[in-house]
Specification:
Number of helices: 10
Strand content: 25-35%
Number of domains: 4
Low-confidence stretches: 47-52
CATH class of the largest domain: Mainly Beta
Distance between the termini: 39 Å
Strand order of the largest sheet: 11-12-16-17-15-19-13
Helix content: 10-25%
Length: 444
């Protein structure tokens, strides 16, 4: 077959055809296809998973609390492209589920730290993408040190509001009821705060106790309000206007107001009329920017156990780095890093991520045709699907055909908010723990 025809077959809708075309071109010396080759293999594997059946499925996992003290409940929402008997199989150790893995019932009660992976199986064959959910059990020391927002309730509504710890990052949904409106710009000083998703449809609510929540520690509450609108009386009276602005993909520019609260119950008023609903963020009171100098001074008191707790907890490092089988493989390998880099490198990379950008781990920006703007690191890419990991650890799946513009930015995939969300001692602790990690075991 002429080379030109093989080139055309690279766009064929069938993964196995694309694979054969790629192999033929590679035999002819076209080595530029090496990067695409893995994608073709994955596509062919996906074809074989549902061979003999046109039924495909989608699955979404939802937890009552991603961060829990005693236990949490996980539910699975499944949709299929046609009538079929299906089973949901799952694992709790981060491994890929198979048809022999534990069967998911309507609800799963989880009482320990876990990385749940689940998939839909039809006739013993995987018919969906694998979805992942990290469930974090809060330790006693973490409860005393990390801000947790709980018991969020909107007056007169049964809708569940789930706070997103460290969720104020570019690319996340700006509102609970509008996934197409994403946050596009957020100041470093407030990035990484807990995001409490409000509902865009509640813009007319005026109650004095529209939204209720509780915190375990003293907190600074930030309200991002439409800069073109008059703020309601309860905000004008008790909240201070800051110099910060947050923007969204639908062109909103929201000015940020703040107020400090003691630990306990917090009541927030309604929006009072403007067509743009306010956004709500919270952070631990008293947070200041952490410097490299202050971190190095804290190294003499470094607690590596606490550092490990931060890595897999509020540091959200596990969202991009896998260590000892825990976490997601997106960012560079950290195990044995002491053999390649020194302590200064680890500290500066945490506080100033753009100082060292490892080739292939830049942040990617995707502008979608539906108006969304997404920012993160690509975990997997095929001709049919891109898996993007946001700075929060959330995995987003997009079809390449739905992308309007793509930009592999000259920025690190790691968020720049750690200088504001972690103290000098926190950074010292996690850096000391990372520098003690042994090299990963290799298999022969």
């Amino acid at each position: 077959m002429p080379k030109e025809q093989r080139q055309k077959l690279l766009d064929d809708g069938r993964g196995r055809i694309r694979l054969m075309a790629a192999l033929g071109l590679m035999e002819e010396g076209d080595r530029n296809l090496q990067k695409q080759f893995d994608a073709f293999v994955r596509d062919a594997d996906k074809d074989s998973r549902t061979e003999g059946s046109s039924i495909t499925a989608k699955i979404q996992l939802k937890a009552k609390e991603l961060n829990f003290r005693d236990s949490t409940t996980v539910s699975a929402q499944v949709s299929t492209s046609g009538p079929a008997e299906y089973e949901v199989r799952y694992t709790l150790d981060g491994s890929k589920p198979t048809a022999k893995s534990a069967k998911f019932n309507n609800f799963q009660q989880i009482s320990k730290e876990a990385t749940m992976q689940a998939g839909v199986f039809i006739n013993g064959q995987l018919a969906s993408d694998i979805t992942s959910l990290h469930l974090h059990k809060i330790t006693d020391s973490e409860w005393k040190d990390r801000l947790f927002v709980r018991g969020v309730r909107i007056k007169g509504s049964d809708a569940k509001v789930s706070p997103i710890n460290d969720g104020l990052q570019r690319g996340v949904a700006a509102y609970a009821d509008d996934g197409k409106d994403t946050i596009t710009q957020v100041p470093d000083a407030i990035a990484g705060a807990t995001l409490v998703p409000t509902r865009k449809g509640d813009y007319k609510r005026k109650e004095a106790d529209y939204l209720l929540l509780t915190t375990n520690l003293s907190a600074t509450v930030y309200i991002a309000y439409d800069s073109r609108s008059k703020v309601p009386d309860w905000m004008r009276k008790d909240y201070k206007k800051t110099d910060h602005f947050v923007t969204t993909s639908k062109g909103q520019k929201l000015q940020v107001y703040s107020r400090d609260f003691k630990a306990g119950r917090i009541a927030l008023g309604g929006n009072s009329g403007p067509k743009t609903m306010y956004q709500l963020y919270l952070s631990k009171t008293g947070a200041k920017k952490t410097s490299i100098t202050a971190t190095k001074a804290a190294l003499s008191k470094a607690n590596t156990k606490h550092g490990e707790e931060i890595f897999f907890g509020r540091g959200t490092c596990f969202a991009c780095h896998q260590v000892k089988g825990r976490g997601i493989v997106v960012g560079p390998d950290l195990q044995g890093i002491r053999q390649r880099r020194d302590m200064h490198y680890v500290i500066q990379s945490t506080l100033e991520p753009d100082a060292y950008i490892v080739e292939g781990y830049q942040q990617t920006s995707l502008e979608m045709k539906d108006g969304r703007k997404l920012f993160g690191m690509i975990q997997e890419e095929t001709a049919l699907q891109i898996k993007l990991v946001l700075p929060t650890g959330q995995q987003v799946f997009v079809n390449p055909k739905d992308i309007k513009k793509r930009d592999d930015a000259k920025h690190s995939g790691m968020p720049a908010s750690f200088a504001y969300t972690l103290s000098p001692q926190d950074v010292a602790d996690v850096s000391a723990w990372i520098m003690k990690l042994p090299p990963a075991k290799t298999t022969k």
